[in-house]
Amino acid sequence: MEKISIEELTQVVALLVHAAKIDDHYSEGEKKIVLNFISGYQDFRGKEKEILTNAEKIESDSNQVLNFTNLIKTKSNKFKEKIIEGLWRLIISDKNLDFYETNLMRRICGLIYFPDKLSGEIKMKIMGKK
After folding, report:
1. Is-contact 34 13, C-beta < 8 A?
2. What pLDDT score was predicted for residue 65?
3. Domains located in the chain, CATH noted
4. How many Cβ atoms sit within 10 Å of the Cβ of residue 21?
5. 20 to 30 Å CA-CA from 113: which of 33, 65, 71, 119?
6. Cβ burial, residue 103 (10 Å; 0-12/13-18/19+)
7. What is the rounded distance in angstroms from the CA atom of residue 100 to the CA atom of residue 103?
8. What is the 3-state secondary structure (H, E, C) of the chain?
């Protein structure tokens, strides 16, 4: 897995928090999904809550998704794929896909240079339709 600093991971997590809040409902279940995402980075185990708290602060102080995607677009496709998967897990977790969430995913994919087709395949896999 690609190495990432705690600051970079916090920016990525801020993007996940932004996606979770896009439907105006940021649930405990969504927070657990984000914490599990952070746990996937072994170097930061035990710091999940600290990273989430910092990411929530960054997200609340920002009004642009661009702030979170600039770092991601410079990373490998494998890294981007993991983030897209985490985003879809969050968005699909409430079993209610709305226009704002799907539009956000299209925007993020464009901003980080990630293929829409691959994003759609990831979404279908998570939904159990593949």
Report:
1. yes
2. 85
3. 6-126 (1.10.3680.10)
4. 15
5. 33
6. exposed
7. 5
8. CCCCCHHHHHHHHHHHHHHHHCCCCCCHHHHHHHHHHHHCCHHHCCCHHHHHHHHHHHHHHCCCCHHHHHHHCCCCHHHHHHHHHHHHHHHHCCCCCCHHHHHHHHHHHHHCCCCHHHHHHHHHHHCCCC
Residue in this structure with the two tokens 């970079």, named with its chain if needed: 8
How much is the pTM? 0.91
Query: For the segment 49-99, what is each residue's pLDDT rounded down to a tens digit?
Result: 999 999 999 999 987 888 889 989 999 999 999 999 999 999 999 888 888
Count Cα neighbours of 55 within 13 Å in the Cβ-side half-sphere: 28
Please report, as a single letter, which amino acid is at residue 100: Y
Q: What is the pLDDT, as a whole number, of residue 128?
A: 86
